[in-house]
Amino acid sequence: xxxxxxxxxxxxxxxxxxxxxxxxxxxxxxxxxxxxxxxxxxxxxxxxxxxxxxxxxxxxxxxxxxxxxxxxxxxxxxxxxxxxxxxxxxxxxxxxxxxxxxxxxxxxxxxxxxxxxxxxxxxxxxxxxxxxxxxxxxxxxxxxxxxxxxxxxxxxxxxxxxxxxxxxxxxxxxxxxxxxxxxxxxxxxxxxxxxxxxxxxxxxxxxxxxxxxxxxxxxxxxxxxxxxxxxxxxxxxxxxxxxxxxxxxxxxxxxxxxxxxxxxxxxxxxxxxxxxxxxxxxxxxxxxxxxxxxxxxxxxxxxxxxxxxxxxxxxxxxxxxxxxxxxxxxxxxxxxxxxxxxxxx
Length: 345
Prior knowledge:
Elements: E1 21-27, E2 35-40, E3 44-48, H1 55-72, E4 84-86, E5 93-96, H2 110-113, H3 116-125, H4 128-133, E6 157-160, E7 168-171, H5 194-198, H6 202-208, H7 213-224, H8 241-254, E8 261-266, H9 274-289, E9 293-297, H10 301-305, E10 309-314, E11 323-329, H11 340-344
Parallel strand pairs: 3-9, 3-10, 5-8, 8-9
Antiparallel strand pairs: 1-2, 1-4, 6-7, 10-11
Helix pairs in contact: 6-7, 7-8, 8-9
């Protein structure tokens, strides 16, 4: 990528304007100077501008809470000031794909988050060995009594609370980190215990479960967003922000989609390698092809070039920002002299 022998391809999708618009009028939160935002649905939209120009304030602190409030009927956190919102009836849900963890404890992992672990447990409960012993689906859960190791309560690790320091996790000395008791681990499917399945990478598990279509599809989505290397049972707190974000995107792709969802991503390429950015772009294009709208707050030029519509804030950060310099099709921004984004592109 750095030598220019490989580059991130630019998608030449045309702007779609006939699926309706969402308009936010009179936004004045923090440094925003009474701005009016217009977004065409069914496109990939870039929100650009220098740091502190008001991008996150406008999108994640004003537009997202406003849509959430109108669609769900309530919003508990603070909402940025604005006059009125138009066009919210054109979408059915709004989803903020942030970099927060998929779970706070080691019990959460990609298999439980995406819902495939329920189906894996079902497979184990239907084996001859499990039936002979009278083991039901719940036996293979590490959150329920019966099949789990009771010393660590199925966590595989024991939490040691430290005064004035972060908690420390040590491997359980009874199950040796296997999470389950001896009897549960004697049940095998295709020669593998449920603990060994949780230790498989997404790529290995996709090959192992290729005849189980629902599990296979979820694994394929994880693989396509560039997470083929993670294990199914990898504890949630060990994922980086970018990895957590991509697990959420893979889960969204595996849902039955109506094509009327607005996705908001705040700088999703932070810390990502160029190869991973290419995979992320492929995923975002899939969401847009399904009829959804993707709004991305971004500085990365490869992401911006792949968007059909751009909203540029500025011209500076802080008090010198808070204005929309340009909103429209990507090529039109080149004429805006005071835009740093135009110079950069």
